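Thread: "does anyone have the structure for this chain?"

Original post by V.I.:
We have the sequence but no experimental structure in hand. Need at least a predicted one for the grant figures.
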Amino acid sequence: MFHMKRNDNEEKQMSMKPNRSDLLTAWMTLVKVRETYCHPEVDQYEQTVLLDVLKMLDKLQQIEGKK
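Reply from O.Q.:
Generated one for you, tokens below.
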């Protein structure tokens, strides 16, 4: 099997771990979705899920900001 040696910079570019900016972009997108679409497009359960995800993204963004 052929293995390529990668440097640290390449590994960082390939990482799927979101940075603080990624988390903020996700948060802003969900806020726009929540404000744009209302019933019947987004039901009460989905509204609740959106709020939970927004809270989670906010918490993760704060954690990333402390690093």
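V.I.: this helps a lot. The mean pLDDT is 83.
O.Q.: and The first helix runs from residue 8 to 14.
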